[in-house]
Amino acid sequence: MSYISKAALQAASPYNAAITREQFLFYEVRTTAKLLNEGYNSEEVVECIVSDNLFQYPTEKSVRKIALACLRRLEALDDNSLVEAIATQPSDVAKQICLYAMMKQYRLVWDFMITVIGEKYRLSDTTFGKIDLNSYFLRLQEQDDWVATWSDSTVAKLKQVIVKMLAENEYIDNIRSTKLNPVWLQPVLKNAIRENGDEIALPAFNCFS
Q1: Hey, which residues does 127 pair with through a beta bridge?
Q2: What SS3 class is residue 112?
Q3: Are 193 and 199 in contact (CB under 8 A)?
Q4: 164 burial level (CB within 10 Å; 0-12, 13-18, 19+)
Q5: Distance CA 27, CA 29 (A)
Q6: Which residues of the chain are in CATH 1.10.3540.10 domains?
Q7: Which of 73, 74, 53 is nearest to 64 (CA)?
Q8: How does pLDDT run along the chain (209 residues), one tens digit per residue?
Q9: Is the distance from CB of 120 to CB of 164 less than 8 angstroms?
Q10: CA atoms of 94 and 188, how far apart (whole Å)
C-alpha cells in the first residue's frame, strides 16, 4: 500500500490509535484541570506543567506532549463545570468524568464503551474477557480500512489500554478480571451528558433512566 493511500485512509477514518501513547492519564488530566480551574490559559498551563515537571516524566518533550493531550481531552468535554469537577471533586467522581472525556476525544473509546460495555449492561451480561475485545476490534477492522492497516502489536496495545482504563474506573476488579461490576453514574456527569445531548452514552455508565 502506498504512503499516499495510507494517509488518505487515515484522513477518512474517525479512529486513531493515539491512546497507545496517551492512556487514561488520570493524575495528569486532573493536574491540568486544576491549573485551568485556577484561571491559567492553555499556553500557561502547558508552560507551568513543563517548567515544574508536574508529571514527573523523564524528558521535557514527553511532558509537553502529554500536557497537550490532556488539554485536548478537557477541551473535548466542552463544559467548564466538568473541568472544574475533575479538579475539585473526589477522585471517583473525577475519574468517571475523565472517562467521559476520553470517550469524547477518541471515537475508538466512545464506540467501545457504548457498543460493548453499554450493551452488556443492557443485557445484564456480567461476563467480560478477551473475546469481547477481540470481536470489537475484528468488527472495526472489517468496517474501517484504516483500522484494518493497524499492526497486531498496535491492536494488542490498544486492548491493554482499554482493559487498564476499565480497571481504573472499577468496571472490573483488575486487568485479569472476567466479571463486569455494576457502576453508578455520578449525578454531575449524568446531568452534563443529558445537557450535551449525549444520551446515547448513558448505557456505558450502566444508566437506563
Answers
A1: 179
A2: helix
A3: yes
A4: middle
A5: 6
A6: 106-209
A7: 53
A8: 455 588 899 999 999 999 998 899 999 999 999 999 999 999 999 999 999 999 999 898 999 999 999 999 999 999 999 999 999 999 999 999 999 999 999 999 999 999 999 999 999 999 999 999 999 999 999 999 999 999 999 999 999 999 999 999 999 999 999 999 999 999 999 999 999 999 999 999 999 98
A9: no
A10: 10
Distance (Å) of CA 150 to CA 19, 129, 158, 172: 13, 21, 10, 27
The architecture in CATH of the region 106-209 reads: Orthogonal Bundle (1.10)
Grid coordinates belonging to 150: 493497524
Q: What is the pTM of this model?
A: 0.94
Q: How far apart are CA 119 and CA 123, in angstroms?
A: 6
